[in-house]
Design goal:
disordered N terminus
Length: 310
């Protein structure tokens, strides 16, 4: 399990836990509390919180009584990838655990985490993810296949709902196995592998940096493994809930960046107009018909207006 403490020079064993915070102080306090609850167990960990310009609440108050946490405060919002890379550079421990601030680690995850570290990565080239659940115990279906231009087009045009049989079969979230991508809300890997991959691609301000890292890992001969033996609680979209318009814009932008990086060509080029013209209309229609689109009509319309103002 995890013992949390300040990092000291020369202390390189254990885990550096990396948390990028943005307007999630309420959730962050619970996240840190769950880490601290594992304090007396036998693995060592340091916690680095990169605070991306939060304004709601007093982060200092959130950190009260948490001497094991080091906070990095930039002058402005640097985005997730940049924040994660800078936080990683502050530590020296052998393993890295990227954790969202709106997550909770139950004590039962400790032995699983220890086992993965001790025996799960003999080749030093693996990214691990665990099963994600809601507080009520519902298993989130968040392990995904790599995005391709065809898949993006099916989703953006709504054709994926009509021709769902041609979509890749989803992963079984109740069994261990090798997958394309695990969620960035919980990603465990060796520091040496993260550094070999060049860290997070900072061209992704937020979203798709986790898929990009997993794809680069697979392309370099590494593995991405999902374990259902342990789970963590993920509230989900804690930052997006208050800034839906901004988050939807970043999600569209990062999706196009990912496709242009890994799948350049005519089909990817056609996704720009589809994304910014057709998809907002479909989202508004879906919301009106009672379908879940992930963003409210107000946020979708607001994001659409911002596109045309630019």
């Amino acid at each position: 399990m995890i013992k949390t403490e300040r990092h000291t020079p020369g202390d390189t064993g254990g885990i550096d836990i990396i948390i990028v915070n943005f307007h999630t102080e309420k959730y962050l306090a619970e996240c840190l509390g769950s880490i601290q609850a594992l304090l007396k167990k036998h693995l060592c960990a340091s916690v680095y919180v990169f605070d991306n310009g939060s304004e709601d609440g007093d982060l200092t108050r959130t950190m009260a009584g948490e001497p094991f946490v080091q906070v990095i405060t930039p002058d402005s919002n640097q985005g997730y990838a940049c924040g994660a890379n800078r936080a990683v550079a502050c530590g020296k421990r052998e393993w890295l655990l990227f954790l969202n601030p709106d997550t909770v680690l139950p004590e039962s995850v400790g032995p699983v985490l220890a086992d993965l570290i001790e025996r799960g990565d003999p080749d030093g080239n693996t990214i691990f993810g665990l099963q994600s659940r809601s507080r009520e115990g519902t298993i989130h279906q968040d392990i995904s296949h790599f995005l391709t231009p065809t898949l993006a087009l099916l989703h953006a045009t709504g054709l994926g709902r009509i021709f769902s049989t041609i979509l890749p079969k989803g992963y079984d979230h109740t069994v261990d196995g090798e997958v394309d991508q695990v969620m960035g809300s919980f990603m465990l890997m060796r520091r040496s592998w993260f550094e070999r991959m060049g860290g997070m691609d900072e061209r992704f301000f937020v979203y798709f940096e986790d898929m990009d890292l997993c794809l680069r890992t697979r392309q370099a001969g590494g593995r991405v493994l999902f374990s259902a033996r342990g789970h963590y609680i993920h509230h989900g979209r804690a930052s997006a809930g208050r800034r839906g318009q901004e988050c939807l814009l970043y999600w569209w932008k990062s999706r196009l960046q990912y496709l242009n990086k890994h799948h350049p060509g005519l089909l990817t080029a056609s996704l720009g107009p589809v994304t910014y013209l057709w998809e907002p209309l479909l989202r508004l229609l879906g919301n009106a018909l009672g379908f879940s689109t992930g963003f409210s009509s107000a946020d979708t319309f607001g994001a659409w207006k911002k596109i045309w103002r630019r």
